[in-house]
Design goal:
This protein is of the alpha+beta class and 178 residues long. The chain has 3 helices and 9 strands; from the N terminus they run H-E-H-H-E-E-E-E-E-E-E-E. The protein has one domain: endopeptidase domain like (from Nostoc punctiforme) (endopeptidase fold (from Nostoc punctiforme), Alpha-Beta Complex), CATH 3.90.1720.10. It is globular, with a radius of gyration of 21 Å.
């Protein structure tokens, strides 16, 4: 009987401990390592959006909204799932990104981290509208390690945003073999 009472008294404590320990490590964690030396926006805003910015930086002659670039590049430019310097990362259209988004790969830091230059990102409160952000981190959070899902640096908080964006892939400025 005493053993039964002790077991019932300890049971709630076990649930509390399990709850506390569930936040330690594990695959469900959304915390990312700190990134030092990442700047914010450049200038006061040039009024440029991501499409003309990417076109000017890469020479890729595509038109339309950012989300349309992936299909428009088929047969014209090389496309792939791996980042490379000078390639354009194409984010799909969502409720939060109705036109999608483009950024230009500046450098690869690690197999699952790149730095990009882009315009018109993170418009919360209008502070990113039309402004250029350079050398901004982007991490691959896809389960298949294929850059199909990414988190993007959010300058106003100096950290990655919580949103995971679907990525179509990378467009190379090199013409497709024809």
């Amino acid at each position: 009987m005493a053993e039964d009472v002790t077991r019932r008294a300890l049971l709630p404590m076990g649930f509390v401990m399990a709850g506390l320990l569930s936040g330690c490590g594990g695959s469900g964690s959304t915390r990312t390592p700190p990134v030092a030396g990442v700047g914010g926006y450049q200038g006061t805003g040039s009024g440029i959006s991501c499409v003309p910015f990417a076109r000017a930086r890469t020479g890729i002659e595509l038109r339309g909204d950012a989300w349309e670039w992936w299909d428009a590049a088929l047969g014209r430019y090389q496309r792939g799932r791996r980042p490379s310097v000078g390639h354009v990362l194409v984010l799909g259209r969502t409720r939060r990104l109705p036109q999608g988004h483009l950024s230009v790969v500046r450098r690869q830091v690690a197999p699952r981290e790149i730095r990009v230059d882009h315009a018109n990102w993170a418009e919360a409160g209008g502070q990113g509208r039309g402004r250029i952000a350079e050398d901004q981190p982007v991490i691959d959070v896809s389960s298949g390690n294929d850059w199909s899902a990414v988190r993007v640096w959010y300058p106003p908080i100096q950290d990655y945003g919580h949103t995971v964006f679907a990525a179509h892939g990378f467009i190379s400025p090199r013409l497709a073999a024809g």
